[in-house]
């Protein structure tokens, strides 16, 4: 059985003239970037480790998925040693003037990914550790998304994954 490779990393963006940095996520699966320019909800991501169901891992920077035209979450299924994602494509609904990459009737297509549970947990734990390190060591205050998220909340999530 073939497993997909998940990687979640963070970096700090320092917009010119801004007093704060922005902690920006990057999700790759099999070295292909997924959800470029879309915020990640670390709480939903962590919940997907423990519970199956629909998880809005991708969201708007404000924390409300629908605000970013995201109306379908990632469907997560669990097996004893693996986690499967059924991810809607596109992640967000195109604007009416956008050429639609969706099926002609505008329904979502779901792409399946399968991850080893141990590797999935490690990818998430490593990313949270990296995000904390970046946020705590930055010389300027850092905004952590979605809006209102804090270093304290990141620490709590990291502890739950241990």
Structure characteristics:
3 helices, alpha+beta, 162 residues, four-stranded antiparallel beta sheet, four-stranded mixed beta sheet
What does this entry look like structurally?
- The chain has about 160 residues and is an alpha+beta fold.
- The protein has one domain (about 5-95, about 105-160).
- The protein is about 25% helix and about 30% strand.
- The chain is built from three helices and ten strands.
- Strands 1, 2, 3 and 10 form a four-stranded mixed β-sheet that branches. The chain has a four-stranded antiparallel β-sheet with strand order 5-7-8-9.
- Strand 7 and strand 8 form a beta hairpin.
- Helix 1 (about 40-50) packs antiparallel against helix 2 (about 115-135) and helix 2 (about 115-135) runs antiparallel to helix 3.
- It starts with 5 loop residues before the first strand and ends with a helix.
- The mean pLDDT is about 90.
Low-confidence stretches: none
Query: What is the terminal-to-terminal distance?
Result: 27 Å
Q: In sequence order, what are the helices and strands, one letter per element?
A: EEEEHEEEEEHEH
Instruction: Output the structural class.
Output: alpha+beta
Task: Summarize model confidence as the mean pLDDT.
Answer: 89
């Amino acid at each position: 059985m073939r497993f997909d490779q998940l990687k979640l990393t963070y970096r700090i963006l320092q917009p010119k003239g801004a007093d704060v940095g922005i902690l920006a996520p990057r999700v790759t699966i099999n070295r292909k970037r997924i959800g470029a320019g879309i915020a990640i909800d670390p709480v939903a991501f962590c919940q997907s480790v423990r519970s199956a169901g629909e998880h809005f891992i991708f969201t708007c920077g404000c924390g409300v998925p629908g605000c970013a035209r995201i109306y379908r979450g990632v469907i997560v299924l669990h097996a004893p040693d693996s986690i499967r994602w059924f991810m809607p494509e596109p992640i967000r609904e195109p604007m009416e003037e956008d050429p639609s990459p969706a099926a002609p009737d505008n329904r979502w297509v779901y792409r399946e990914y399968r991850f080893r549970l141990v590797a999935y947990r490690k990818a998430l734990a490593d990313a949270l550790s990296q995000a904390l390190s970046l946020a705590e060591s930055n010389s300027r205050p850092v905004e952590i998304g979605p809006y209102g998220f804090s270093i304290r909340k990141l620490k709590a999530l990291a502890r739950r994954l241990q």
